[in-house]
Amino acid sequence: MKLLKEKIEQEGEVLSDVVLKVDSFLNHQIDPFLMKEIGDEFAKRYSDQIITKVLTIESSGIAPATFLGLTLGAPVVFARKRKSLTLTDNLYTSKVHSFTKNETNEISVSQKFITADDNVVIIDDFLANGEALKGLIDIVNQAGATIIGAGIVIEKGFQQGGKALREQGLRIESLANIKSLANGKVEFYD
Amino acid sequence: MKLLKEKIEQEGEVLSDVVLKVDSFLNHQIDPFLMKEIGDEFAKRYSDQIITKVLTIESSGIAPATFLGLTLGAPVVFARKRKSLTLTDNLYTSKVHSFTKNETNEISVSQKFITADDNVVIIDDFLANGEALKGLIDIVNQAGATIIGAGIVIEKGFQQGGKALREQGLRIESLANIKSLANGKVEFYD
Ligand SMILES: Nc1nc2c(ncn2[C@@H]2O[C@H](COP(=O)(O)OP(=O)(O)O)[C@@H](OP(=O)(O)OP(=O)(O)O)[C@H]2O)c(=O)[nH]1
Ligand SMILES: Nc1nc2c(ncn2[C@@H]2O[C@H](COP(=O)(O)OP(=O)(O)O)[C@@H](OP(=O)(O)OP(=O)(O)O)[C@H]2O)c(=O)[nH]1
Prior knowledge:
The structure is a homodimer.
Chain A: H1 2-11, E1 13-14, E2 20-21, H2 23-27, E3 29-30, H3 32-45, E4 53-57, H4 62-72, E5 76-79, E6 91-98, E7 103-110, E8 119-127, H5 131-143, E9 146-156, H6 161-167, E10 172-180, E11 187-188
Parallel strand pairs in A: 4-5, 4-8, 8-9, 9-10
Antiparallel strand pairs in A: 1-2, 6-7, 10-11
Helix pairs in contact in A: 3-4
The complex binds guanosine-5',3'-tetraphosphate (2 copies).
One guanosine-5',3'-tetraphosphate sits at the interface of chains B and A.
């Protein structure tokens, strides 16, 4: 996605060989116009499918997912990483491992909000090792719903998450796919 | 806001005399069309002001705030409740007390994203005791920016947060203001 790649080139900060900082438009400050364009781009990529639900995870996935939901006319659900005041229903839960923190966390979605009739697109901001995405897939499977595919704003293709999941048959649409962050530079796959 | 009050009446669950659950459209599942209408309503309420920035806090404030930002053409910043991978800059921080959990947490905003030239509207989903809102106000003050006002989706007017802050001169626009949650029923101020 041209606009997104330009934003990454102009505003992204390469913090290390493996971390790209995009706090100015995606992870802390949000560019609403860009989010709308991202939502529309995901909708375009999946225009061949019927989607009844958009699933994401708090917090950075919320804005991209909500704009996709707006364009599709579909509700958006965000998985919780921590208990919230009103998350009192029966829940689907899954474990998500963090390599950086060397810990495992539980994510939750109320059983009310994904049912076996749903056709789900899973949205997230980054795809690196794919642990969060695997957890969301697990939840959709527990619900007996259909996974239409995933939509990722920025994939770090040099990390293995995307490759492994595509080999298992998951459709993944990334709006920018990074080949390398070496030498402080962002290099895209194309 | 009529549409919002109808949604609350149709889908809200009164969990106790002090807690209203609206997980089906605001706090876990998100109704994107409603969020767009909420953003437009906030923009209408503040159409007499120049707003350069929308400030909110993760997670439930993000969708309402982002739609306001879209309508205004203004960037949106969400305060972090926990350290994130790329929150590495100089930060403005503030302490937010939780009565329910009887604990105090630190919230953070990068100094890059609010400056003294900003005219800020603060957005959040609920206003109860006002602790989160006070923390966000504190951060805007540390930045030397101007607080135009707050925009709250659902105020629980029977709790004291709104009253105290309005007495201190803060403009607060609530889209629904709840007078009572007694006897399992939602009663609005009107
Ligand atoms: N900016 C940035 N973030 C990256 C990058 N690679 C991974 N992340 C984000 O870091 C977080 C994952 O960290 P961990 O759970 O510790 O997992 P990991 O070490 O196994 O990658 C996720 O944030 P998250 O769940 O999206 O958190 P939130 O922002 O939604 O709160 C993920 O999106 C990167 O190159 N740049
Ligand atoms: N659904 C619902 N939520 C309420 C109600 N009253 C307060 N809250 C939410 O509860 C959370 C505040 O809880 P605490 O920090 O424990 O504070 P408190 O006990 O002093 O109220 C906030 O969530 P938050 O920061 O918005 O969390 P998040 O949803 O953004 O993750 C606030 O918006 C209510 O009647 N109904």
